[in-house]
Amino acid sequence: MTITAYIGIGANLGDARAMVEYAITKLRSLPQTQFEQASSLFITAPIDSSGDDYINAVVAVNTELEALALLEHLQALELSCGRERPYRNAPRTLDLDLLLYGQHIIDVPHLNVPHPRMTERAFVLIPLLQLDPFVQIPGKGAAHQFAPAVADQGIRKL
């Protein structure tokens, strides 16, 4: 069974743009997965954190991987890029978040889908809506309805 999944990408340490572009390239070769499209790259200020501005994007994939297997691949890519988790919202070389996994609602240790704060973050909503203006967030409704609430968050297209 093939599921459409959306993955959020962010980085703000080192050459963040190059890291996000590298991640997009690597996501093209996930097993049992067809890469569909990537949003533009966006620059955003850190939220609930410090450090340099982030480079963010969202990609859409069609995958046969189970959600936890997909998450394992994302975390392995993060680790291979030097991701460390010294504290919550720490600056990072690469952050990959499973935002949506079809219309599934998943709440297990280490994975919550839809991503619990995606409706509160312009750096997720704007690139996501660029890929699919009509995307639905399971249990919440149309993603575009949340855009006005994040309009005050600084975001600009690269």
From TrEMBL:
Pathway: Cofactor biosynthesis; tetrahydrofolate biosynthesis; 2-amino-4-hydroxy-6-hydroxymethyl-7,8-dihydropteridine diphosphate from 7,8-dihydroneopterin triphosphate: step 4/4. It holds the Pfam family HPPK. SUPFAM superfamilies: 6-hydroxymethyl-7,8-dihydropterin pyrophosphokinase, HPPK. Residues 88-99 form the 7,8-dihydro-6-hydroxymethylpterin-pyrophosphokinase domain. InterPro entries: Hppk (IPR000550), Hppk_sf (IPR035907). It comes from the Bacteria. Keywords: ATP-binding, Folate biosynthesis, Kinase, Nucleotide-binding, Transferase. Its EC number is 2.7.6.3. The keyword ATP-binding applies. Catalyzes the transfer of pyrophosphate from adenosine triphosphate (ATP) to 6-hydroxymethyl-7,8-dihydropterin, an enzymatic step in folate biosynthesis pathway. Belongs to the HPPK family. This is 2-amino-4-hydroxy-6-hydroxymethyldihydropteridine pyrophosphokinase. The lineage of its organism: Bacteria, Pseudomonadati, Pseudomonadota, Betaproteobacteria, Burkholderiales. The gene is folK.
